[in-house]
Structure prediction request, 133 residues.
Amino acid sequence: MKIIRAEHVTDGTIDQLLTLNPDLDQQLLKTCGYVVDNDGLTAGCFALEQVKSDVYWLRQLQLTPEMAGSVIVLIETVINMAKEKGAQALYVHSHQPQVDTLLTALQFDETTVTPGDVQAPEQAGKWWIYHIS
Prediction:
């Protein structure tokens, strides 16, 4: 699994991702997004948005069904990326019970605090925070 800045991939790769999920925010993906590559094949994407100097928000995490088993490794990679950027906290907004279970297993804590002054997503869900040390 290889992580590539979305700004460094072709428009065709972005189009592939939009085929997986037409609701992806293409502008967000291009400004702070990453593409997951698996042996030369586009396997997913995510955005790691900086909301404060030391706070990041993991958004738009998408993986192909074939890569679903790698989601834990991918989230751990994102945590390390945030740490390298100087983050003290990483937020996730989840609207799926399976993701809630996964985040709990990865030692995220449910929180009522949102990251900075961001507008909460329209979908109802839960906020999670990972404290980076």
